[in-house]
Design goal:
The chain is 45% helix and 14% strand. It has helices at residues 38-41, 59-81, 83-86, 90-105, 108-121, 126-138, 145-165, 176-186, 209-227, 260-268, 273-288, 292-295, 329-335, 355-370, 405-418, 423-430, 447-455, and strands at residues 2-7, 14-23, 26-37, 188-194, 200-206, 303-304, 309-313, 322-326, 379-384, 393-398. The strands form 4 sheets. A 3-stranded antiparallel beta sheet has the order 1-2-3. The chain has a 3-stranded antiparallel beta sheet with strand order 6-7-8. The termini are far apart.
Length: 461
């Protein structure tokens, strides 16, 4: 074994001192951690610095290098003395020897790399497993942006909860005590609002039990994923108690669908550029049954204007399916306003419209529509339940305040059924499986419609 020092670069003012170790045609090169001034401290075309008598004080540098050389010699001799090392392939021999030398030289950068490698090897924490769970599903086309957003919200809530309580979450801690504490933490949240004087103030609001239930449902999905063997090796042997982790649901389904006259009202509204684009996106959703995430994926090649068909591969939906949607006259009218007959969810700054902003804008549009069409002002009784309140809380809300992007998909399916289209044909266009259990949740008829149909039933005549 032999070794010598050299400069990493002679073209710069300062540079690192490197060391080269050679043994039986095997080479290892690494930095010593020492930095010198090239012209002042190092002899031209030499493998060592100037002697002390030429540059006072440099016996320190020379002694440092000699000390390093002795350490290298000791490590190499011990490494070579191990018989199994000598039989290793060249690359493996060099990598293992370098790792041994790094530990001796204690270079800061390399020590950090070693620590990083150790961090990777150590067992992941509960929250790290949750983060990995989210990243894994982000790469899976079965899980859309909406689902990933729900996962991310739950993760952030767990992070904030652990910081507030100053605890480290573990799988074993997922018991009744945690459930009660976490749901109580979720029951209230803070928002910023402006008061009458225009000042921004922080107010505390109550979160509905159904919203808390969504967080618990996400947590249960994660826990089941970690315990299940279906996804490879089990992450934990601990199984939470399903009876404890109760998933609270909304006390009453308040979803609804718009009828054709309400859709016509929306289409004819005179709006500013921002609301006009949102309204057009919403009407296109109603005309296609597409979710926003699928709608914004559309490109010119998805449209066959001769056959009047849109072909969509729902990459970001729960179903990996190819669907074909007819281009209706209403859809033609809306798309004709835009370049290449394509509408995007981007604003003037090139940023995509967020779900929350989209739904807020729909409520603005609904309020404007209510001045023309009184049906948007119809008061709906909404039952809400909060964790700190034993009884249901009744709220009377005008229909336009309940508008959201998902109303469009329900309106598409309900309108198709109203028009007499067969359920199976609707499923083919909407992308639902034939045995889909969720399909019926999209069908929203009114009590008036039920009475009118029953009046005309032949068996009652």
């Amino acid at each position: 074994m032999r070794s010598y020092f050299y400069l990493k670069s002679r073209k710069t003012l300062t540079t690192s001192v490197m060391v080269n170790i050679t043994h039986d045609s095997k080479h290892v090169q690494l930095a010593t951690g020492i930095v010198v001034e090239v012209k002042k401290h190092w002899k031209p075309d030499k493998k060592h610095p100037y002697r002390g008598e030429v540059l006072p004080g440099f016996p320190t540098l020379r002694s440092q290098l000699l000390d390093i050389q002795k350490k290298i010699e000791t490590v190499c001799n011990e490494f070579i003395a191990i018989e199994s090392n000598l039989t290793k392939p060249k690359r493996e021999f060099e990598a293992d020897l370098k790792a041994s030398l790094i530990l001796v030289l204690r270079r800061k950068k390399d020590i950090q790399e070693i620590k990083k490698a150790e961090e990777i090897k150590r067992e992941k924490s509960f929250l790290e497993h949750f983060e990995a769970f989210i990243k894994d599903r982000e790469t899976n086309p079965k899980y859309g942006e909406g689902i990933i957003k729900i996962y991310r919200t739950c993760y952030n809530q767990l992070v904030e909860y652990s910081k507030l309580k100053k605890i480290t979450l573990t799988f074993e801690a997922m018991d009744e005590k945690f459930f009660n504490s976490f749901t109580k933490y979720l029951s209230k949240y803070k928002v910023l609002r402006k008061n009458e004087d225009g000042e921004t103030i922080e107010i505390t609001k109550q979160r509905q039990k159904s919203a808390i239930g969504k967080a618990i449902k996400t947590l249960v999905t994660f826990l089941n994923n970690c315990y299940s063997k279906k996804n490879g090796e089990k992450i934990t042997d601990f199984r939470h108690d399903p009876k404890v982790f109760e998933v609270w649901k909304s006390p009453e389904d308040i979803s609804f669908a718009l009828d054709s006259s309400q859709i016509d009202t929306l289409e004819k509204l005179e709006l500013n550029d921002r609301l006009s684009r949102v309204r057009d996106l919403f009407v296109i959703q109603i005309s296609t049954g597409l979710r926003v995430s699928d709608l914004l994926q559309l490109q010119p090649e998805n449209f066959d204007w001769k056959k009047e068909i849109i072909t969509v591969y729902m990459i970001k939906s729960k179903l990996e399916s190819l669907v074909q949607i007819p281009i209706s006259p209403r859809l033609k009218r809306i798309l004709s306003k835009y370049e290449n007959n394509i509408i995007t969810g981007k604003n003037k700054n090139g940023k995509f419209l967020e779900d929350q902003k989209y739904n807020e804008a729909l409520k603005e549009i609904g309020k404007i529509a209510s001045e023309i069409d009184p049906s948007f002002k119809v008061i709906i009784l909404v039952m809400k339940q909060y964790i700190d309140v034993n009884d249901m809380k009744q709220e009377y809300i005008p229909l336009y305040k309940l508008l959201s992007s998902h109303v469009a998909r329900r309106s598409f399916i309900t309108s198709a059924i109203r028009s007499g289209v067969n359920d199976e044909l609707i499923k083919m266009v909407s992308g639902h499986k034939k045995d889909s259990k969720s399909f019926t949740s999209y069908v929203k008829f009114t009590n008036t419609e039920a009475v009118d149909v029953m009046k005309q039933a032949s068996f009652l005549q």
